[in-house]
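REQUEST ID: PR-0412
SUBMITTED BY: lab tech R.K.
PRIORITY: routine
TASK: structure prediction, single protein chain
INPUT:
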Amino acid sequence: MTRLTTIRGSAAPLPIDNLDTDQIMPKQFLRIIDKAGLADGLLYDLRFDERGAPRDDCVLNQRAHANATVLIGGANFGCGSSREHAVWGLQQYGFQAVIAPSFAEIFYSNAMNNRLLLVQLERDAIDALTREASETPGTLLSIDLERQTVTSGSGHRFDYAIGARHKRMVIEGMDTVDLTLDSLSAIEAFEQRHFARHPWAQVM
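STATUS: complete
OUTPUT:
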């Protein structure tokens, strides 16, 4: 898979704390046997009213943010249930990264396992990026995955932390199965040493 080292595009500000996976991907859009069509359900109740008409006040319905590839969220983004459809829906809609002050743990794992980059920044940095995206829609934002930096359109740069395993997964497009297979020779060597010391434990 092609290495992903830079994400560059405009950002859509959605500063809602505790935005849960039930809101990100409502239950009525889970009645499928594959991943297709989830973009339609993304944040449906925020994007549409009870009659199915687009809400003018939703940032995702505004032309200036129509092609955003980065979503700027609030604290505890992705809390609630463990539904992986929330991640798939964000990706199908066109988002490659979400920047927020904090993320729910299960959502974080699901996202990284599917190559959706999650960037955690301090609240001050989030506020600055949200303000810029709101005041100057369409301004490009750049994320350098190798250097672990976010650079706003106005030139402000913020460093972010990420574990080595998750960083490699996103850059190289690996999931947890790929990581395990990548260590197959070490696993087999350990197995041989283990059964050499404890031959009675080996299943014949």
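NOTES: Strands lie at 6-14, 70-73, 97-100, 117-120, 140-144, 149-151, 157-159.
REVIEWED BY: pending
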